[in-house]
Inverse folding.
């Protein structure tokens, strides 16, 4: 594609050099190939302008930039001449998203694109929407925290919301594979960094807003603003589907151009749901007056399923076929995933890593089996929001009979420091039932071995992850494997 076609509508203010044929679009200098256009993006951790010389050395024939001084330094270092074309833009983050949309021929416009944002429930909702529509006979794509899918082909997921080049590349593959729908998680960081700019969303869903990512956003108000920005940017022909039981539900959509549709478990709304029965095997729900059975459990999953039902209606599915498909859905990996073992033990693996998510899961387990011994094992990620650590302790203390505090992904923080931050949240009574074991494998083993017969043991925080990051090293760590090994010793 010609460079002029790629940069069209992207806020280019100057172009120095000829209009070239471009073979690839890159914002990572390590991925540059001969004939590529390299976009120097000012990122959160690093500045792409520092890699302009490297990109030229690898064969980039065009560079998009913000910082003219950085370009001058790169040209001097690389000895670049008229063989390289330079394009100045006002905002490289915004520009690269629109360039990706152009380069891959606007793939989101050729799909029915459904995006969900909120603190909790994003992965479960988009994953189940993907499986629901696949079960209805449609070819679909999925962009999520756990994995990306083009029809049935899986691609590794690195971030909740990928970079815009990856997003548009995957959507182009979806179009080529004949996909009709794409279901996508949209993170607050992805919105703030404009990774979803230029995408043609048909439906935007708001789940809930609680404490998370304040290490990045600094304040809750800024976190809310970035979530809301997703709905502010929806077009008039889109649908903004919002949970009005969350106190921020109507705030999210107060400035949107999209048609607002509401859902609720507690009050009047366009779509409503009631939990009629619940056990470890599943729930009986009444959605818009019709009953259906689901294998998922917990009030938070009732919200997720109502959002799925409402979104499916908005993109053309019929009520009865949705309800039948809902009854066939299995929980997403690492979301209230139950492993039954000897002595009547149940180990539940869940991704809950925020105070609200942990509260939801523990309350669900306590409500379903109020007389069972409930054990909670959790940690907190290093180099992330520290303010939620004592709050996690308070939630665990509220519901659990025994608590094991351990490592999560400590990253470059000392695990002992993280555990001390968590410890500060316990009352004396909470400390009396808490055990601190830094080694997560040993903590899991101890929790299972010491739990009385018939206990429910929640392993919170890792969920679908099959690794643990200690320092800068990413180590294999699959809780399912560890649990099965311990079960074999009982």
């Amino acid at each position: 594609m010609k460079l002029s076609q790629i940069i069209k509508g992207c806020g280019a203010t100057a172009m120095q050099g000829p209009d070239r044929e471009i073979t690839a679009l890159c914002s990572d200098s390590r991925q540059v190939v001969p004939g590529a256009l390299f976009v120097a993006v000012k990122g959160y951790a690093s500045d792409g302008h520092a890699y302009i010389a490297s990109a030229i050395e690898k064969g980039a024939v065009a560079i998009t930039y913000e910082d003219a001084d950085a370009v001058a330094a790169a040209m001097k270092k690389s000895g670049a001449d008229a063989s390289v074309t330079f394009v100045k833009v006002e905002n490289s983050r915004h520009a690269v998203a629109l360039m990706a949309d152009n380069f891959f021929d606007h793939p989101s416009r050729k799909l029915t694109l459904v995006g969900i944002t909120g603190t909790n429930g994003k992965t479960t909702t988009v994953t189940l929407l993907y499986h629901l529509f696949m079960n209805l006979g449609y070819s679909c794509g999925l962009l999520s925290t756990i994995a990306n899918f083009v029809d049935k082909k899986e691609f590794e997921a690195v971030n909740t919301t990928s970079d815009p080049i990856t997003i548009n590349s995957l959507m182009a593959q979806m179009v080529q594979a004949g996909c009709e729908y794409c279901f996508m998680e949209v993170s607050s960081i992805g919105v703030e960094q404009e990774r979803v700019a230029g995408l043609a969303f048909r439906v935007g869903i708001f789940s809930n807003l609680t404490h998370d990512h304040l290490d990045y956003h600094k304040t809750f108000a800024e976190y809310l603003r970035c979530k809301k920005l997703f709905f502010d940017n929806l077009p008039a022909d889109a649908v903004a589907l919002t949970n009005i039981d969350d106190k921020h539900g109507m705030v999210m959509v107060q400035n949107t151009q999209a048609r607002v549709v509401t859902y609720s478990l507690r009050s009047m709304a366009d779509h409503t749901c009631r939990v009629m029965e619940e056990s470890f095997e599943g729930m009986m729900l009444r959605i818009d007056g019709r009953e259906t059975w689901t294998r998922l459990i917990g009030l938070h999953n009732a919200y997720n399923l109502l959002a799925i039902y409402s979104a499916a209606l908005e993109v053309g599915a019929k009520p009865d076929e949705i309800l039948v498909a809902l009854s066939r859905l299995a929980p997403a990996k690492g979301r209230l995933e139950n492993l039954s073992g000897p002595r009547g033990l149940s180990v539940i693996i869940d991704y809950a890593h925020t105070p609200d998510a942990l509260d939801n899961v523990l309350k669900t387990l306590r409500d379903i089996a109020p007389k069972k011994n409930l054990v909670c094992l959790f940690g907190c990620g290093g180099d992330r929001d520290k303010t939620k650590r004592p709050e996690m302790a308070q939630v665990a203390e509220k519901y659990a009979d025994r608590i094991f505090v351990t490592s999560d992904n400590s990253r470059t923080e000392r695990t002992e420091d993280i555990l001390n931050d968590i410890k500060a949240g316990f009352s004396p009574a909470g400390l009396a039932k808490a055990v601190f074991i830094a080694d997560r494998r040993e903590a899991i083993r101890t929790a299972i071995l010491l739990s009385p017969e018939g206990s429910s043991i929640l392993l919170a925080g890792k969920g679908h992850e099959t690794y643990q990051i200690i320092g800068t090293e990413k180590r294999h760590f699959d809780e399912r494997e560890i649990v099965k090994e311990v079960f074999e010793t009982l």
